[in-house]
């Protein structure tokens, strides 16, 4: 049983390291977005995708390990969480697992904050671009329109001439 606890601790420490790398990628993504670096952003997104795949693989391993631990403790597999496992008095790794859990929670919180910040910046940038395009379009329409803002017709800005087709 101690071996399972040790494996879980090692796995959680790997997750913490992956989350730290993911936070670095989010910081780099923020920098690319603020600098309008499309190529850099594409590279970061590819790295984030790889990172997410690694995190999913680790999560699958953790889930499998938790099932083994639950079986050994004669507890329902769905009812055993890391928080509950830490509360078992006969768990010699509970202090270390508690530290890992606390560290993971702080990393997850930081990831959520950074992700929300990046999303807000991208949303704001997209809205700004949309408004700019609408303004440019409306200015182009005003330049070609024979009407003023007050509804009056302007004097013809365009010169016109009749062309004779009888030549």
Backbone structural class: mainly alpha
Q: How much is the radius of gyration in Å?
A: 30 Å
The proportion of residues in beta strands is under 5%
Largest sheet: none
Number of domains: 1
Model description:
It is a single chain. Helix content is 75%, strand content 0%. The chain is built from four helices and no strands. The model has no long low-confidence stretch (mean pLDDT 85). The protein has one domain: Methane Monooxygenase Hydroxylase, Chain G, domain 1 (Up-down Bundle). The chain is mainly α and 167 residues long.
Describe the secondary structure blueprint for this structure.
Blueprint lengths: L1 H33 L3 H36 L8 H6 L6 H51 L23
Helix pairs in contact: 1-2, 1-4
Name a few traits of the molecule.
Methane Monooxygenase Hydroxylase, Chain G, domain 1, 4 helices, 75% helix
Care to give the gist of this entry?
This protein is an all-alpha fold and 167 residues long. It contains four helices and no strands.
């Amino acid at each position: 049983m101690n071996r399972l606890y040790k494996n879980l601790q090692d796995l959680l420490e790997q997750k913490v390291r992956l989350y730290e790398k993911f936070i670095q990628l989010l910081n780099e993504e923020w920098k690319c977005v603020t600098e309008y670096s499309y190529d850099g952003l594409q590279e970061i997104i590819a790295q984030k995708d790889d990172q997410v795949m690694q995190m999913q693989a680790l999560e699958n391993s953790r889930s499998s390990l938790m099932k083994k631990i639950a079986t050994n403790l004669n507890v329902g597999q769905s009812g055993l969480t890391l928080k509950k496992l830490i509360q078992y008095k006969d768990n010699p790794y509970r202090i270390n697992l508690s530290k890992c859990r606390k560290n993971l929670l702080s990393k997850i919180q930081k990831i959520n904050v950074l992700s929300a910040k990046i999303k807000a910046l991208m949303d704001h940038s997209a809205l700004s671009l949309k408004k700019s395009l609408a303004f440019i379009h409306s200015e182009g329409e005003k330049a070609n329109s024979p009407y003023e803002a007050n509804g009056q017709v302007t004097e013809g800005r365009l010169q016109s001439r009749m062309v004779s087709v009888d030549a």
